[in-house]
Amino acid sequence: MAPNSPDAIRAAFRLSAPAQAPATLFGTGQWGVYQAGYSMREVATDPDLMTGAVLAVQRQAPSPIVFVGSGFNNHLIGALGGGIRYPRLGAPEVSVPLIRDRADEVDGLDLSEIDRDPAVFTVRQTARAVGEALGPAAIVAVTQWGPFTSAGQMYGLDGFLRATLTAPEVVHRMTQFAVRALKQYFQPLLDEHLIGLISLADHSASSDLISRKAFAKFCLPPLMDLIDWAKKTYRVDTWLHICGNTADKWDLMIETGAVCLSLDQKVDLALARQVCHGRVCLAGNIDPVHVMDQGGIEDVQAAARRCRQAAGPDGFILTTGCEMTPGTPLGNAQALLESVA
Q: Which of 70, 181, 204, 331 could form a disulfide bond with 149, CB atoms 3.0-4.6 angstroms apart?
């Protein structure tokens, strides 16, 4: 088994113990677009450009998991009528949320608009083309926000977080709608067997923003619903990333049913192994800014050694603690992947 092959990744998901934990690049959407010399706006609705950017990066830094659509998560909200703006550098942002006055406005939204949206079409077509081009050489994953983050982007995050304290029924209504929207987004990809993994980033569920009690009440049930649907209906697993130090909720994150918990650079990997070992695969957690962006190849190699020593070889995948910045040097990405040698 090659150390960075899809088979090595699947072995890690099964909590096996290879000679050395595999490595993958995580959430490379923005980074790949800028590496290829494009802007996010140019690529967002052009399947050929997006596919070309993904494959160009993959040729230079072959990763066993290819995360398609990362950085374009907010286009789900745009497909349903939200406003989207493109900053000069970085991912498209929600400029106008879906909700103007009341949460029941979502009842009038047509989820089939997701299937007619050009940006969603672009991600789906890219997943198809990348899968055809790479075949068994990589696992194709498509990335979206988790239900809590999706709902917050739809509602307006500040008001949504306040509602966890003042109007819990609003939060439940919005997360239930978000799960339906996410199923609509992923279903064609799963029906056509275009992806082998779902990637969810639920950054608004971070301990920096909500308590463990709020996570259990508002985030866990919709995550379980979505992850269970993909697993039972399509036999497709989910990679779950939540930003920040998630130590207070690892047991709840395991309860979601995710096959792998992607851990932020703030997390103590040795502690995570102590708590989670034998229960779920862990991935992480080289600092994407101070090491991957601002450091050199030797810094990446040293960080990779520290992560592996802390997490051990079994049930662990080496990657970054969050998405790489657009300006991350290609040599540093290559060094992360080559650290298995």
A: 204
Q: Which tens digit of pLDDT belongs to each residue from 86-104?
A: 998 889 999 999 998 898 8
Domain segments of the chain as ranges: 6-338
pLDDT at 341: 56
Mean pLDDT confidence for 72-79: 96
Tens of pLDDT along 188-210? 999 999 999 999 999 999 888 89
3-state SS string for the chain: CCCCCHHHHHHHHCCCCCCCCCECCCCCHHHHHHHCCCCHHHHHCCHHHHHHHHHHHHHHCCCCEEEECCCCCCHHHHHCCCEEECCCCCCCEEEECCCCCCHHHHHHCCCCHHHHCHHHHHHHHHHHHHHHHHHHHCEEEEEEECHHHHHHHHHCHHHHHHHHHHCHHHHHHHHHHHHHHHHHHHHHHHHCCCCCEEEEECHHHCCCCCCHHHHHHHHHHHHHHHHHHHHHHHCCEEEEEECCCCHHHHHHHHHCCCCEEEECCCCCHHHHHHHHCCCCEEEEEECHHHHHHCCCHHHHHHHHHHHHHHHCCCCEEEEECCCCCCCCCHHHHHHHHHCCC
pLDDT in tens, 4-63: 899 999 999 999 877 778 999 998 989 999 999 999 999 999 999 999 999 999 999 999
